[in-house]
Amino acid sequence: MHDVIENGNLGLGAAAADRGALWRVWRNAFPFVVVGAIWEAIAHLGLFPAQLFPPLETIAAVFVRLTASGVLPHHAFDTLIRLTAGFALAAVFGIAAGVLMGRSRRAEDILLPLVSIGAPIPGLAYAPLFLLWFGPGNVPAVALVAFVSAFPIIYNSWTGVKAVKEIWLRSAQAMSADDRRLFRHVIVPGALPYIVTGLRLGLAQAWRILVAVEMLAAVPWGLGWLIFGAQEFLNTDVMLAGIAVIALIGLGLEKFVFQPLENFTIVRWGMMT
Predict the structure, then answer these.
(1) For residues 81 and 137, is the Cβ–Cβ distance under 8 A?
(2) Between 188-216 and 223-232, two packed helices, what is the crossing angle to 10 degrees?
(3) Assigned superfamily of 56-267
(4) CB atoms within 10 A of CB 141
(5) CB contact at 8 A, 83 and 146
């Protein structure tokens, strides 16, 4: 009898867990369902020409066709290479500069005014300079991505280091922690939530400037090149397929890079639930 009751409770628990999982899936999917329904309604009402506002089934068909032919993966791969190279440079330099500014008053006095002046300038304003300096091709695209996306990383890393509580530092010093242990076990964990936020903002900046500069830099492949090229021929479905790939890549980076990083560090350390 006891085994029957226990098995029944386990079954109820499993059913409740399944319902909870379904509810989370539906909650996450609901905004996309609403937007998709509105899009379909507008497309089929004929408020815009079909060539300029295609229905979702047309976009999906183009997406599948370009993916099966290898065109879309080729564009996405080239863009990802440029994004990864530029963003990696920005992350390394940005975190190092931000931490240095947070730990050194002299570095802060020198670098903070430069960051404060350079950050508000739109990335596209730098594009003509980078094209003149490096010429057309991949180099100006990667360099511009690194330059533009470094600003939010620097600023947030600096803010994170400055936000570390003084009592944490004094407590560690009272327990005879040297500068290396203080940095590794107090400053880095305390600043990491801000650093991760800076990386997210930097990645968003990297996407914006890369999609635009891929056309200006005259690269032969890339999602930006695909989108701007489709605009010239009013291929709105191709443009939207390219935008969908950017969204999917962004979602993949969030799910498989940033969330695991947070779970392995910030969440595990009890700094975020």
Answers:
(1) no
(2) 40
(3) MetI-like (1.10.3720.10)
(4) 31
(5) no
**Residue (of 268, 199, 242, 214) closest to 67 by Cα position:** 242
Interacting residues of 253 by C-beta distance below 8 A, sequence separation 6+: 203
Cα torsion at 13, 18, 21, 27 (round to 10°)? -110
Cβ–Cβ under 8 Å, residues 258 and 200: yes
Q: State pLDDT tens for residues 172-226.
A: 766 766 667 777 777 788 888 899 999 999 998 998 899 888 877 777 888 988 9
CA distance 155 to 159: 6
The residues spanned by each domain of the chain are: 1-47, 56-267
Closest CA to 152 of 214, 213, 215, 87: 87
- Whether the model clears a pTM of 0.85, i.e. scores above it, the answer is no
- Residues contacting 240, CB < 8 A, separation 6+: 54, 59, 62
